[in-house]
Amino acid sequence: MIIRSDGQKHFSVAVIGGGPAGIMAAGQAASPGTKVVIIDKNHNLGRKLLLTGKGRCNITQAEFNDREFIKKLGPNGQFLFSALAAFGPKKVIDFFEQRSLLTKIERGRRVFPVSDKAQDVLETLIRYLRENKVKIMIDSKVLGFEIKAGQIDCVKLKNEKIYADNFILAVGGLAYPGTGSTGDGYVWARKMGHKIIKPFPSLVPARIKEDWVKDLQGLSLKNVALSVWQDNKKQDLKFGEMLFTHFGVSGPIVLDLSKTIGELLAKGEVKIEIDLKPALDFPVLDKRLRRDFIKNSNKNFKNYLPELLPQKLIEPIIKLSGINAGKKLNSITKDERKKLVNLLKGLKFTVGGLLGYKQAIVTGGGVDLKEVDSKTMQSKIVNNLFFAGEILDIDGPTGGYNLQICWSTGYAAGAAAALKG
Ligand SMILES: Cc1cc2nc3c(=O)[nH]c(=O)nc-3n(C[C@H](O)[C@H](O)[C@H](O)COP(=O)(O)OP(=O)(O)OC[C@H]3O[C@@H](n4cnc5c(N)ncnc54)[C@H](O)[C@@H]3O)c2cc1C
């Protein structure tokens, strides 16, 4: 930092927002000749990062084929090509491993720290900032910008102004506002002439209308298939993990289907169907039940079900099947058995709506990518402004994609802002 004769604090680069995107940008921008400040309104940097992956931080997605990675991000994914080529998942893993944070790859190519602690990821990043002598300003809410001759002159805090040659906006979106992301960046970017694609909560849990769903609270299902239906037509399908909450359903496959659900809800009623036995088709499952019923002919229905289902689903399935709980397996009729197979292959619920920003993992929409250079993240409207992270109109499914967007865009913005005089 240079203190000017008039007392002005002047940096080469000022990064606004100390989440993953801002931290990566600040660390990358800093060098002996480039003085960088990172400013955050919270008392600690990376508050949201600590919540990621249920406190374990799914750092990235080990999809090393950039084309395949980008396919998962939808139509806006193309924007990430250059940034991903410069700092993709492999380089992110190397970045952390070189700083002694060992990583492991889990199901679905999700990359986690071996320690299973998001705190360790954050500490590694803060060490990175310290090593690069980045000035960290916490408890410092940015209130706005001053513009001079079409360029940002300084950021305004409550009691001071911070001047810099270049500014990186990395204040996130609107999701999980309790962590500090309250949409301030959209307001500033719009004021500076940027178009904001209407933000919406993305990767968000769903409310279920059926009252009995409350009895399933806490139930986690692995290896199930979840399909989304409208007007008796299947609209989408995902395999994997989901869970029941006090209001409805959440977990990776629900979050990943939430975009489709949201779009369909705008048109009418939406049903979801859980296939509890996706590996067995209808005839195979029916055959298995028939065999089991012969083998355990004297067992009653209720005592047999734990072989098929988690505890919490037993009572609901008994009710929905209409089969008497005490009925001996050898007296269950063919029609009853078929009904049971139908339930196991398609447990239906009606969606009552999606939750809002408070529970959303990311924000869809944001700064229009047409107005941002995809190699440098530089604004095409304000010459000394750069963007990084969730504030941009790009987001991905669960599995480490969203943090990778932060690392790649943060890296690109930091490198470019440092080079630009
Ligand atoms: C519960 C949860 C779990 C998640 N798990 C994963 C996961 O495992 N893997 C994955 O890839 N993604 C995950 N995500 C998504 C991921 O956390 C986000 O994509 C990522 O944090 C966005 O980073 P960012 O730096 O753009 O913004 P943020 O992390 O939101 O950081 C923005 C920062 O800007 C600061 N700020 C805002 N306004 C101001 C202001 N006016 N003045 C000063 N500072 C300001 C905020 O305090 C905040 O620290 C998860 C999200 C949530 C909510």
Automatic annotation (TrEMBL):
Pfam families: HI0933_like, HI0933_like_1st. Residues 201-362 form the RsdA/BaiN/AoA(So)-like insert domain. This is Aminoacetone oxidase family FAD-binding enzyme. Its cofactor is FAD. SUPFAM superfamilies: FAD/NAD(P)-binding domain, HI0933 insert domain-like. The lineage of its organism: Bacteria, Candidatus Portnoyibacteriota. PANTHER family: OS12G0638800 PROTEIN. Keywords: FAD, Flavoprotein. Gene3D superfamilies: FAD/NAD(P)-binding domain (3.50.50.60), HI0933 insert domain-like (1.10.8.260), Translation factors (2.40.30.10). Residues 12-415 form the RsdA/BaiN/AoA(So)-like Rossmann fold-like domain.
